[in-house]
């Protein structure tokens, strides 16, 4: 089973036309994620798998999910 946590795009690097990358914040952990096949802008939330963005997540839903995860950590 895979657990996907929403990540917020901090910055985008399109200097390589065939490999757009983004710096993504996953609740304090930042990773470089390929965004070549999704339509995103800075500030968007995504789900990623194996270093690639697989979908864009609605901002409200992403923030609610992250808040729920924080609540679970406090239990």
From TrEMBL:
Question: Taxonomically, which superkingdom?
Answer: Bacteria
Give the residues annotated as coiled coil: none
Pfam families noted in UniProt: HupF_HypC (PF01455)
Q: Which PROSITE patterns match?
A: HUPF_HYPC
The record's InterPro entries line, in alphabetical order, gives: Hydgase_assmbl_chp_CS, Hydrogenase_HupF/HypC
| Single GO molecular function | carbon dioxide binding
For this entry, list what GO says about its biological process. protein maturation
Q: Which PANTHER family does UniProt cross-reference here?
A: HYDROGENASE MATURATION FACTOR HYBG
Report the family membership: Belongs to the HupF/HypC family.
What the entry lists under NCBIfam families is as follows:
hypC_hupF
Q: What is this protein called?
A: Hydrogenase assembly protein HupF
Organism whose genome encodes this protein: Parabacteroides goldsteinii
